[in-house]
Every structure is written in structure tokens, then in C-alpha cells.
């Protein structure tokens, strides 16, 4: 193909939850480990570049000489990979690296010491041990200035120690007098290179918890020379970063800048980096979030900046809102997140960002379904379904960020709560109204913050007037949605959800190892009462889908069968109950392994199923006397874990399907009903994701945008485009642009 069929529009991810997993290159790109991949991100234009597959990834650093063209990553698979930039692409350069690039090597250990090694005869030999720290040494980093080496080390003792290494022969002897206080020198000799000394330059105390990361400001070019600024950035579990440097007059090291986050229920920072020009600083936190600050050149103040965000564990499910303006995702990191395009006046580019975190739960999230423009139902590893509705603060902020027209009438907005907060030791988001904000402010003014009652404080909501995506701190505390209903009825943990096109009925299913627990439950979205129980399957129902016309409900199961339920006449049956219309058994089933996914064609004539047996099958005549397979069996080459049919036909009137595989690849197929099924000509492969576009682990869910065009764009030419969203076990959410008219 001359041009790629699928263009990556958005990638949502975060850093791994381990120290020293982020590196900021001299070219301006930020590289960070995310699950078993290396992500490359440009914070200046908020553009995601590449996803480099590393398989088992935990730590990463970058090294290069001259123009920055190489990146080094190390993983928990005991391998080190060197990536090299070639023709604008990044590829594997060498995956067997032995030895090191330094003449001097510093290692911090759990013995509270820093050990110095020097390379002699091709081998590193330990020559000196630096003592002083009183707990594990978490990070060490070198800098070079005026022919001397500066070493910074940080520890779990909350302190930072800065050492200076210099050639002893080059140092003039110091006259000893009673008025001179000389630091102790640790002297060692290197064969053939002379005598060297190490002195403790300073001890920096300012953090209140373990210091996990330190980073020297990168060297800068001034004229024909390269200068190393003596500025050191540190990051701590106390959720602060501090920029240190010596005073011009006294030379004493002092705190120059302190930034950080307050609130939330997370721990602090695992590492830090500084931009090449020194005007931006970055931290990555315990829950993987990136925190970015920039220095306002006019006022000299440091302000939070917009940065990429995402789940820090497997993303289990996602759903578009009915208008196709945003997506909501749920993951095993116990969060529900909302992403939308950010449209800015005067700028043509549109970037996607997380603007709300409606649910921060105590159980791993498993599934969700939208039941209105601003309402959804979610299920987790618990027996309860929870219903959430957007507060007024979100609706207004969403309109400002996406530049959408008025979304609700004035009366509807007035009736909404301002926001939501989570009670201490609770799991339910409680609505916060305007009157609550007034009383909350008065209560805070009169509280005794030393009282025992404030040891487990409620996470207070503060209304926001957002015109750009919120910071991580605000996402954690000020973007929750109120929980409006709990639904009880299942006996085990929730597994899948679906809602009909009219958003009047919700179907739910839980994990099951017996037929009595595998029944599908139907709920009314007006009364939130249980309408029906639909028993058929013997094991967990893995996915469900209502037909677009709302008359049929399809379910697929771990028992390798599917069931089709038909709705009664709504004119004569007020509850519009469902009855079993067709199903397969173990004897008649086409699939021989678990059926993972299913979906409907936009005309409700056909549905498709995908299975672990690598097969995809289309079934038709859904309104006729018999429901039978109407396609040849498509072998996709790997376990088919997700499938979705585009709601719009291709130019040749064929159906467009996206199939997600266990290996992370997404493949596009066109299917057209045919009389002759023996040749397999009814299926044609028309596109797939490349190595950088694919997920690195199982594709968990695929969803097409319910409207044509690209979200956030306008114009008649947009009808030639469709968008596909995917969720993966690699912690990543992706959105692809596909020009359907070119297929």
C-alpha cells in the first residue's frame, strides 16, 4: 500500500510504576516506559510519536554522542535494547549490550553506600566507597563541569549528597591554617592516570520523605562552548520536586524552586527530568501519571502544564458517547477516565486529553456502557453495578475545552449538582451542591486541623472553570461524577454490560462457573429496577450487544456458544420483555473455543462473533425463520479477542470490520454477503496496524465512533473518515483515523 490505511490519532498511556523510567532527550522528546513498550512524546506540541515494543519493560535511559539518535532501554526480561533513529523512524539497533560507556561508574546500593568503579584492562574494579547515607541509595547521577566530575546521590533517608571528583595532581596544595576548614578527601589512584580525590560538596535537606530521583540540568551551548549549569532537580515521595543550586555570592547550595501536588489519595514521585533549555521540569508519580511544569519567562513563576495521561494497568472496556464527542474507558487500575479532543481558538491542530476521572474505585474496573449523553453504568470486581451522572462543573468545562455548543438546556444544568466528592474510607461518590460548597468553606475555616477527626478527611470538591485539560491533581479530586444508583442482583463479580440504542434497557452479566450464575439481567434506565433474568449459558457471558433497531439482544459466552433474544412488541407489552429466539449448542456451534466478542451490522441484518479458535463468523437472517451462518469461516491467524463492525458501509457497499488479536494487532476486513461460501471470497483484508501502531498485549475492546468524521473536526469532507477506538491489556487506549472512502 502506498499510504497507511490507519492513521494514529491519539494514544493514551502513562509511565510504569517504577523509578527512573523517564528520560528527556536533548532533541526535546520525552521517552518513558509504559507496560512493555517505550513511548516517545513531544511535550511542546503535545504530540505522541512512537510506541517501541520492548516486551518486558521496567527501566529506561537514553545515551548518545553529538546529534541524539540513539535510545537505550532495559527491561525485566534481563535484556538491554539500543534503538536508533533512521529516516525519521526508530528501530532496534542492537539488543545485546555489554559493558558501559563511562570511565567512572557509580552504583548506589541497599547498603546505604555509593560505590565507585573504574575500568581497568576491560574490567570494572571497585576503588572507593562513599559513606554518609543512612538508608538505601535510590539514584546517582554524574555531571561534568570545568574538567571535574560532580556526583549527586539521593536516598531513602530523605537527603541528597553532592560529591566532587577531581584529579589530585591538578589541584594546588592548600596552605593549612587555623582559619581554614577543609573537607575530608577520599583519595584513590588509577593506574596510568594518576591520583584522584573525592570530597563531599554539600548535603541537601528539604524533602520530608524518601527521595527517589535526581537530575542535573542538561548542559547548554553558549557561543562556541558547552557549559554545565550547577542546578540539581530532585523528586520525592512527599509529592514535591525541588530545584537546587549554589548562591552566587556564598556558593552555598540552597532551594531555588519547589513545586508539587496536594490532595488526592496517591503517593509521591518516582523520578524527575528537566528539559534541555531548563524551562520545563517533569516528574512521574507512583500511579504512573506525568506531572509537567513550565517557567513563565515573563513572571519567572513555575506553572503546571498540560501533559499526556492514561491508565496504569490493563484497559478492560471503552465506550463512545452517543454523539461521538468523547470516549470513556475503564481499567484494572480501578479508574474510569474520559478523553475528548481539545479544540483551541487560533490553532489548527486538535489533540486528545483526559478531562475527567468520573470514578476512582476500590476494585478493579471491568466494564461500562453509556445510557445517555452524560450518564453511564460501570461494573467492577464486585457484585454491584453503579450508575453515574455528570455534574454541572463537568458539562461546562467540557463545552469550554471542546468548544461544543450548549449541551443541555438551562433548566437541566441548574438541576445538576456542582460536582462530587468521596467520603473518607468510602467507595461511593457523593453529590456536592452549591449549598454544600458554602458550608464546606465555613467548616474548613473553623476546623482544628490537629484533631483526630481529621486523620481520615473527606476529599473536598473545588469547582473548576476549565478552558484547558486539568492537571493530575484536579483529575484526582475535582472531576468525579456523582453516583446516582446502585444495582444489586448478581452473585459474583461483574464482567460485561450493554445498553440498547434508545438507552432504556441495560443488560449485565457476571463471572460464572455454573448455569445458575450465568443468567443475563435486564434493568430499566428510568426506574433502575430489574426487569428480567435471561438464563441460557452455562459459563460466563463474555460480551453482549443490542441490535441497532433495539429488537434483538446477542450474547456470547465462555461455553463456546451464542444466544439471541428477541424483544416483545412494545405496543402490547409495556415491559417489552425478551425471549430466547435462537442459540447454538456444543453440537451446532461453529466455534471450538471461548467466544470473546460480538457486534451487529448497522442495518441489524447480521452479527459477527470472534473466538480464541482464531475464527470470525458472520451470522444472518436474524429476523427470519432460521438464524444461520452466512459467511465463510475467516481464519485471522491468532486468537480474535475483539471485533467491531463499522456503522457505515464502504464505497462498494461492503461491511467494514475491525478484528483485534491476542498479539496486539488490529486487522481491517471487508465482508460482502455471497451465495458461494466455499471459496472464502466474501472476506477481503484491507488494512492492519503496523508494529508501532499495534498494541503490545491483547486487544481487549474495539469501538467505532457512532458518527462519521473525526471528533473535533468539521466540514463536509469529514464524511469520508471514520474513527476506531481500541483498548489493550498493555495499558494503552488508541484512536485511529480511517479514510473509508479510500478502502
What are the salient characteristics of this protein?
743 residues, five-stranded antiparallel β-sheet, 57 strands, elongated
How would you explain this protein's 3D organization?
Mean pLDDT is 86; it is low at 57-66, 91-102 and 449-457. By secondary structure, the chain is mostly beta strands. The strands form 15 sheets. A 5-stranded antiparallel β-sheet has the order 13-14-15-17-16, with no helix packed on it. Strands 46, 47, 48, 49 and 50 form a 5-stranded antiparallel β-sheet that branches. Strands 1-57-56-55 form a 4-stranded antiparallel β-sheet, with no helix packed on it. 43% of the residues are buried. A hairpin with a 5-residue loop joins strand 38 (494-499) and strand 39.
Question: What's the gist of this structure?
Answer:
The protein has 743 residues and is mainly β. It has 4 helices and 57 strands.
SS-based class: mainly beta
Mean pLDDT equals: 86
Task: Using the CA coordinates, give the radius of gyration.
Answer: 29 Å
Q: Would you identify the regions where 5 or more consecutive residues have pLDDT less than 50? A: 57-66, 91-102, 449-457
Major sheet, described briefly?
5 strands, antiparallel
Indicate the overall shape: elongated
Number of strands: 57
Family: Belongs to the WD repeat ELP2 family.
Subcellular location: Cytoplasm; Nucleus
GO biological process, one term: tRNA wobble uridine modification
Organism: Cyprinus carpio (Common carp)
Amino acid at each position: 500500500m502506498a499510504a497507511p490505511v490507519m492513521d494514529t490519532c491519539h494514544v493514551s498511556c502513562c509511565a510504569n510504576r517504577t523509578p527512573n523510567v523517564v528520560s528527556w532527550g536533548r532533541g526535546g522528546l520525552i521517552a518513558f516506559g509504559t507496560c512493555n513498550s517505550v513511548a516517545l512524546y513531544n511535550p511542546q506540541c503535545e504530540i505522541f510519536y512512537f510506541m517501541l515494543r520492548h516486551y518486558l519493560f521496567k527501566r529506561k535511559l537514553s545515551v548518545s554522542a553529538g546529534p541524539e539518535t540513539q535510545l537505550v532501554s532495559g527491561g525485566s526480561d534481563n535484556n538491554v535494547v539500543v534503538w536508533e533513529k533512521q529516516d525519521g523512524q526508530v528501530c532496534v539497533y542492537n539488543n545485546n549490550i555489554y559493558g558501559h560507556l563511562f570511565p567512572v561508574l557509580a552504583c548506589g546500593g541497599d547498603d546505604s553506600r555509593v560505590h565507585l568503579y573504574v575500568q581497568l584492562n576491560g574490567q570494572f574494579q571497585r576503588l572507593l566507597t562513599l559513606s554518609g547515607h543512612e538508608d538505601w541509595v535510590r539514584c546517582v547521577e554524574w555531571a561534568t563541569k570545568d574538567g571535574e566530575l560532580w556526583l549527586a546521590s539521593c536516598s531513602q533517608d530523605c537527603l541528597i549528597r553532592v560529591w566532587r571528583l577531581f584529579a589530585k595532581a591538578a589541584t594546588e596544595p592548600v596552605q593549612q591554617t587555623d582559619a581554614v576548614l577543609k573537607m575530608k578527601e577520599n583519595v584513590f589512584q588509577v593506574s596510568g592516570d594518576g591520583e584522584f580525590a573525592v570530597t563531599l560538596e554539600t548535603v541537601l535537606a528539604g524533602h520530608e520523605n524518601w527521595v527517589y530521583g535526581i537530575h542535573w540540568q542538561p548542559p547548554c551551548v553558549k557561543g562556541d562552548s558547552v557549559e554545565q549549569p550547577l542546578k540539581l532537580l530532585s523528586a520525592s515521595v512527599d509529592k514535591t520536586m525541588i530545584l537546587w543550586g549554589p548562591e552566587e555570592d556564598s556558593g552555598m547550595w540552597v532551594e531555588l524552586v519547589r513545586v508539587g501536588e496536594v490532595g488526592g489519595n496517591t503517593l509521591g514521585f518516582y523520578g524527575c527530568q528537566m528539559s534541555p533549555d531548563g524551562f520545563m521540569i517533569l516528574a512521574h508519580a507512583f500511579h504512573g501519571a506525568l506531572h509537567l511544569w513550565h517557567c513563565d519567562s515573563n513572571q519567572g513563576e513555575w506553572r503546571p502544564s498540560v501533559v499526556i495521561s492514561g491508565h496504569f494497568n490493563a484497559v478492560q472496556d471503552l465506550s463512545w458517547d452517543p454523539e461521538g464527542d468523547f470516549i470513556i474507558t475503564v481499567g484494572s487500575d480501578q479508574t474510569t477516565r474520559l478523553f475528548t479532543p481539545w479544540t483551541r481558538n487560533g490553532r489548527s491542530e486538535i489533540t486528545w486529553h483526559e478531562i475527567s476521572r468520573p470514578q476512582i474505585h476500590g476494585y478493579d474496573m471491568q466494564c461500562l456502557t453509556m445510557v445517555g449523553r452524560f450518564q453511564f453504568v460501570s461494573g467492577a470486581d464486585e457484585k454491584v453495578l453503579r450508575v453515574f451522572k455528570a455534574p454541572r462543573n463537568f458539562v461546562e468545562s467540557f463545552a469550554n475545552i471542546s468548544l461544543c455548543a450548549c449541551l443541555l438546556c438551562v433548566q437541566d444544568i441548574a438541576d445538576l449538582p456542582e460536582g462530587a466528592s468521596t467520603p473518607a474510607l468510602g467507595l461511593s461518590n457523593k453529590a456536592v451542591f452549591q449549598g454544600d460548597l458554602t458550608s464546606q468553606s465555613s467548616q474548613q475555616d473553623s476546623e482544628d486541623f490537629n484533631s483526630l477527626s481529621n486523620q481520615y478527611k473527606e476529599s473536598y470538591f473545588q469547582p473548576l472553570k476549565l478552558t484547558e485539560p486539568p492537571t493530575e491533581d484536579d483529575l484526582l479530586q475535582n472531576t468525579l461524577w456523582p453516583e446516582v444508583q446502585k444495582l444489586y442482583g448478581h452473585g459474583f463479580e461483574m464482567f460485561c454490560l450493554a445498553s440498547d440504542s434508545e438507552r432504556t434497557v441495560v443488560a449485565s452479566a457476571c463471572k460464572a462457573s455454573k448455569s445458575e450464575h450465568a443468567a443475563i439481567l435486564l434493568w430499566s434506565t428510568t426506574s433502575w429496577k430489574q426487569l428480567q433474568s435471561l438464563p441460557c449459558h452455562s459459563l460466563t457471558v463474555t460480551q453482549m450487544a443490542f441490535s441497532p433497531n433495539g429488537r434483538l439482544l446477542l450474547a456470547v459466552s465462555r461455553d463456546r456458544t451464542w444466544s439471541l433474544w428477541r424483544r416483545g412488541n412494545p405496543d402490547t407489552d409495556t415491559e417489552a420483555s425478551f425471549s430466547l429466539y435462537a442459540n447454538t449448542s456444543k453440537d451446532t456451534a461453529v466455534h471450538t473455543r471461548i467466544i470473546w466478542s460480538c457486534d451487529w451490522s448497522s442495518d441489524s441484518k447480521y452479527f459477527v462473533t470472534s473466538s480464541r479458535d482464531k475464527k470470525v463468523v458472520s451470522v444472518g437472517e436474524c429476523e427470519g425463520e432460521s438464524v444461520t451462518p452466512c459467511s465463510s469461516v475467516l481464519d485471522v491467524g491468532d486468537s480474535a479477542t475483539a471485533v467491531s463492525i463499522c456503522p457505515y458501509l464502504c464505497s462498494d457497499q461492503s461491511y467494514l470490520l475491525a478484528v483485534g488479536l491476542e498479539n496486539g494487532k488490529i486487522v481491517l476486513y471487508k465482508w460482502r454477503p455471497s451465495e458461494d461460501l466455499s471459496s472464502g471470497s466474501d472476506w477481503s483484508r484491507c488494512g492492519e496496524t503496523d508494529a508501532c501502531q499495534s498494541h503490545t498485549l491483547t486487544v481487549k475492546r474495539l469501538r467505532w465512533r457512532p458518527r462519521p468524521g473525526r471528533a473535533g473536526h468539521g466540514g463536509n469532507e469529514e464524511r469520508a473518515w471514520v474513527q476506531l477506538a481500541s483498548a489493550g491489556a498493555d495499558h494503552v487506549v488508541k484512536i485511529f483515523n480511517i479514510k473509508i472512502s479510500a478502502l
